UniProtKB/TrEMBL annotation:
Biased composition (Polar residues): 186-195
Intracellular or extracellular location(s): Nucleus
Name used for this protein in its record: HTH psq-type domain-containing protein
A single GO molecular function term of this UniProt record: DNA binding
Residue ranges of every copy of the HTH psq-type domain listed in the record: 17-52
GO CC terms of this entry: nucleus
Superkingdom of origin: Eukaryota
Main location: nucleus
Record Pfam families: HTH_psq (PF05225)
Chain intervals with Basic and acidic residues compositional bias: 134-166
Species name: Ignelater luminosus
Amino acid sequence: MPKAKNHEVYWKKYNENKLKNAIEAINNGMSKREAAKVFCIPRSTLQFRMYEKFNQTRHGSTTVLTHEEELCLNLQESAKNKLTVLSDITLSSDPENEPLQNYLYWPQTPVRKAKHEVEKTLFILTSSTYKEMQDRKEKVTTEKEKEKESQKLERENKRKKQIEQKSKKKIKGNTLPLNKEKQQSENKMVSTESCSSHVSKSPFLNHIVIGDMETMPAEENLLEDIEMEPETITKINYKTDEQKPYPTPTIKPYNFKENYYSATTAKTAPKILWGVTSCGDNPG
């Protein structure tokens, strides 16, 4: 076990007068280590006191007055307790409601300059001001707790909505999605089937089936324009349930002329001789 120092070493064995003498000796040339041994002051305290920005406070901890002491500050209570007031103080017309704090010669306390509210507080506090400070702290803590609870509720609601949306989505199986080309071809097939629903399923593909519709007379006028032989024309009964085929029109063949190529075009038109093409009279 390592040897521990006696607890007496850590006891405070110096006063402010010793500190001042030690600091003067250090400024005159003595080292801090020697001053710590001579004056029995730890080296860290000497270094802290010699810091440039060090400011020693004149007062200790803040004192809080009791309710009885606070009542003594009022003139009405002071009259009951027979407190003497200096003759130099000039009282106002209604001194009963005003506190004695405005007329006494209080010592000038230094102003505290700090960031925290606790450090900015006065050196002497009344019970009412002390209660106000505590109420402010409680309000701040309650507001923070309410904000945390509201944030938790918002997060829980968001999670519930996400879970509901995921449950509504359809679960896809192991089937792979079709390519775009295959989907387009399938859509075309479906469209052709819907369009060809009015076409007959008979072996005669050229025959068209006409059903019972109100727009048939308009279609009749279109068919009259086509030249048809009188033998092939057949009448159609729209009231009958059976659907009869409509004959196709007879188209005359094109009369091909033998002397189609004239003398002018024969020179320019190509001729095939012995598997060789030529663009003139000379076959070579």
